[in-house]
Amino acid sequence: MRLGPYDTSDIEVRSSGGGGMRRAGGIGCGTLVIALLGALVFGIDPMQTIGMVETVQQQTAPPQPASDMSETEVCASSAYADEACAALASLNATWEATFDRNGIAFQRPVLDLFRTGRVDTRGCGSATSAAGPFYCPADKGIYIDTSFYDQLAQMAGTGGDFARLYVIAHEYGHHIQNLTGRSTQVRQAQQRNPSAANRLQVAMELQADCYAGMWAGKNRDRIDRGDLEEGLAAASAIGDDTLQRGAGQRINPENFTHGTSRQRMAALRLGLESNNDSACEVFFEGA
């Protein structure tokens, strides 16, 4: 996908670990929406990761020492970082325009890129690389250990850029859910009806996949041949059924948190092919 040049003044990005975070985000008691994109790659059972999420939700992290790295320096630190910064700028521009068109207030997220094995968030406590990329609604931060991209390439069988862009666009989808109030609605519904918790979580993840596709669809003129196939391969590789099968486990829909490979591919394609800003609401119809 041809993202083109970007202006670092249009993004907020930082690097954690070593020197710590450069800026403080909002500290609150929001939940941690973890994308289990890499859990089984690192030998972690999905239910153990879910347990970690519950623990992290109750933690708070002390402010980290300030880092002297600027946005420009962070973005120039690696090819993955440069690509992620370009993606963030595009995501910001695309979704800000969508929110403006619908008369909804918009806030940009912060992208935190790290390669230290663990990260202390501003609003959701500590997490390790084993959790995979995740979004923290309390500080509106997208956290990505860029070494995950190497693992994703092995899982999806492709080293294409669109597979990596799908990851950050999916996490950005959780930011959209946070801004629209959808994530709060889902948490409240899960508390009222615990038996529906997994079904609602799957709906959240499929909607985030759909939002990732919608971003790509709104930038169709920048998509290269083969991008869609790369994205679909990544979505297929991280479906709950595929991950469980790859870990030698029995496929158990009751433990699904993100949807099957088929569902994730369909959600990504739905967003990509839709011209309707509300198309991704379909996952909560009748919920």
TrEMBL record:
<keyword id="KW-0472">Membrane</keyword>
<keyword id="KW-1133">Transmembrane helix</keyword>
<dbReference type="InterPro" id="IPR007343">
    <property type="entry name" value="Uncharacterised_pept_Zn_put"/>
</dbReference>
<protein>
    <submittedName>
        <fullName>Neutral zinc metallopeptidase</fullName>
    </submittedName>
</protein>
<keyword id="KW-0812">Transmembrane</keyword>
<feature type="transmembrane region" description="Helical">
    <location>
        <begin position="24"/>
        <end position="44"/>
    </location>
</feature>
<dbReference type="Pfam" id="PF04228">
    <property type="entry name" value="Zn_peptidase"/>
</dbReference>
